[in-house]
Amino acid sequence: MNRDTRTALMDLAEHTVRSRGFDGFSYADLAEAIGIRKASIHYHFPTKAKLSEALIERYQTSLQQGLAEIEAAHTSAGARLKALIALYRGALHDGQTVCLCVAFSTCRESLSDTVIARVGAVRAMVLQWIAETFELGHRDGSVSAIGDPTDEAPATLAMLEGAHLAARTEEDLGVFDAATRLLSARCQ
């Protein structure tokens, strides 16, 4: 299997996890969709646990890059928070998917300890980024009504993740927009 097939498998598996959950597919499903034998998948990902590890590693790298791009593009905390909301909104794909951490969190019992720890690390990374953004908001005044940034961060992440679940349930981006409207309104 060449690198392009491996990437295609990961892309398909990630989309499937984000739309149907980790338990919502098998290697046979992936093999049929890609047009390869199941044994070819096992060559690169001997188990679904190994596939999930590869998915969360790639997701963490992608999310780190996305947060760095937000910082590079926006100097104010308000603009950064609006960009974060847009990043999460984009991950919904018209209400058809949720972010990978949310998807993995809903099927925790099926995940290895390694993946559970990695999901925690990704969430910790985002929490720190959000807290630092609220700290910047204290300094630059571009976010109104800021409490303690370490309290704002988990509330904000929970709101974004909950908005994901609600929008996915309704298959409606408007649900996400309504859930995030108050945070957006705080940002100048």
From TrEMBL:
Top-level lineage group: Bacteria
Gene3D superfamilies per record: Tetracycline Repressor, domain 2 (1.10.357.10)
Classification via Pfam families: TetR_N (PF00440)
Keywords: DNA-binding, Transcription, Transcription regulation
Domain spans labelled HTH tetR-type: 3-63
InterPro entries tied to this protein: Homeodomain-like_sf (IPR009057), HTH_TetR (IPR001647), Tet_transcr_reg_TetR-rel_C_sf (IPR036271)
Protein name in UniProt: TetR/AcrR family transcriptional regulator
